[in-house]
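name: query_chain
kind: protein
chains: 1
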Amino acid sequence: MTTMTSRDRVFTAFQGGVPDRVPVMEMFIDPKVIDAISLGMSYEDFVDYADMDVVTCLTMADDPANINWVDRDRGLWRDKWGAQQILTQDVISIVTEPARIETEADLDGYQPPDPSASPVHGYARKLVDRFKGKRAIAVIGEAAFAPSQYLRAGLANLMMDYVLRPEFVKKLARIGVEYHIELYRRLIADGVEIVVLGDDYAGKTGTFMSPAHFEEFIVPGVKTVVQAVKDAGGYCIHHTDGDIWQILDMLISTGLDMLGPLEPAYMRLDEVRRHSGGRIGVMGNVDVDLLSRGTVEQVKAATKELIARVSPLGGHILSSGNTISSSVRADNFMAMLEAAREYHLHS
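structure:
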């Protein structure tokens, strides 16, 4: 049997098929993990070294050289949406008061960011120049839900708006939808092949909002963005944390090609695949906690069990259950990748 290329494997999975071995990708790999494997190695060199099948970059990343500081000493800065964020001790930003958009007048006068000015275009072109035709090229982004949270200074304010100002939040959501439609069209024209939407909708006890609110306020925007990606010639994956069984059918109805990474504690990929009747592929989901705390032997066993259970159903891309965070042990991450290479589905 002729060995498939990385790109062949990925697109076979998107088409619901079973490639020679399960394709492997990660939305993000913390540089500390790459350094632990080979000090100073770039992300791009690591992708070749580890034979990853998909290469990615983040659309949400702001250029550090152009950060708009409000108060550097306090860690306050303004993101591309004009929302105020604060750096935590982990150098992760969280949105904070005051809200960028509070009133109808704020909404009417708001000027959204320019999709053509995003630094992701430079990151993506670098990947296209190096990997086009060899490995699938993906960007990690958002749709409507996350931008609305940024503009309203957090989830709590937005949830109140769902109840008290339904028409206001529908107009608010269109800001994120229109921005991302144009951004993804431009990126796909430049050679990007996959868009991963990363808005989180749930936690361990279920969705942040009622299924009715999800259907009314979020589904239309997701459907519009997914259709725009597909019309432009790309594939679309949707990641979310948490238990999403209550909204699973609504997500499937948006036309997504694949769901994942999903958290293994709540979302078994074989059950998701069977529930959809094969209409949607699945990505994931080796437990990040296992990758952080387990042994190499446990990681290899868990990875092979996952592949044996999910990959023969078709439409499967292997990844962690979220991202390769700084807590992940380098030897465990490499064990996961080695297990994927060793397990040939047509042997």
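note: The longest helix spans residues 166-189.
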